[in-house]
Design brief:
By secondary structure, the chain is mainly alpha-helical. It is built from eight helices and five strands; from the N terminus they run H-H-H-H-H-H-H-E-E-H-E-E-E. The protein has one domain: Ferritin, CATH 1.20.1260.10.
Length: 241
């Protein structure tokens, strides 16, 4: 197999780039909305990090797509557009709850997307991009989980199902145990394992992988260990309070 043939993006590679691009647009749009509407410092911190890092990631993806003449969309998919409209109508704690839960689901979906590309991608550049991106997404997910345990879970534990929050009736009003169960179920979907974090540096690693069954019935497992290092707290964007 020639190197030129190996580098040719397959249908899988092109679909991956399109979905990754739509994901970036969705995360950036939701993050900017959170910076405009949320008054919670931790939620805003998550949003600022996501906007900054997904914007930088999108630039890398655009360059990669241009290299292989792959046309990328300039907006989220229809599902995320609809979710964004619903989110925009919320405010206060109801908004924070919906934003954090949405980010939890979206980041777990992105992890699955990246793992699939790492295992099944034909083009080595797209596989490298997926591996590099996975480290940042895992770090975002870890931060989101921490925020979910200190902001919206506390608020939701005080609410009755179907109750009102900031004058708005919301379906998000359920006990904290249900929210935690939802996040745990998302965790269970991932094929992952953790190494113990360093007590002094806070550095930890995660091994991610996928098992593929070939046409002849044999199975191949591919995995990659991603090391995550702590980064300084994001600075709140000026003029968005």
């Amino acid at each position: 197999m020639s190197n030129a043939y190996a580098q040719t993006p397959s249908a899988q590679d092109k679909t991956f780039m399109v979905k990754a691009c739509q994901g970036n647009h969705a995360e950036i749009a939701a993050g900017k909305l959170a910076l405009r509407k949320s008054q919670d410092a931790k939620v805003r911190g998550v949003a600022q990090t996501i906007v900054s890092e997904h914007s930088a990631n999108e630039m890398k993806l655009q360059a990669l797509a241009a290299k292989y003449n792959v046309k990328l969309p300039n907006a989220p998919d229809a599902k995320h557009k609809a979710s964004a409209k619903k989110l925009a109508k919320m405010s206060g704690k109801a908004f924070d709850n919906a934003y954090i839960i949405g980010q939890t689901a979206d980041h777990h979906a992105t992890i699955a997307l990246l793992q699939t590309q790492m295992a099944k991608g034909n083009n080595s550049d797209t596989r490298s991009y997926a591996t590099e991106t996975l480290g940042a997404v895992l770090k975002h997910t870890d931060t989101i989980h921490k925020v979910s345990g200190t902001s919206h879970n506390k608020t939701m534990s005080k609410m009755k199902p179907g109750g009102k929050m900031d004058g708005m009736k919301t379906s998000m009003a359920s006990p904290a145990s249900k929210v935690n169960a939802q996040i745990r179920s998302l965790d269970a979907v991932e094929n992952k394992s953790f190494a113990a974090p360093s007590a002094t540096s806070g550095i930890f690693s995660r091994t991610v992988g996928s098992t593929i069954t070939n046409k002849n019935g044999s199975s191949v497992t591919r995995s990659s260990t991603v090391t995550i290092r702590p980064t300084p707290q994001p600075v709140r964007a000026p003029g968005l309070d």
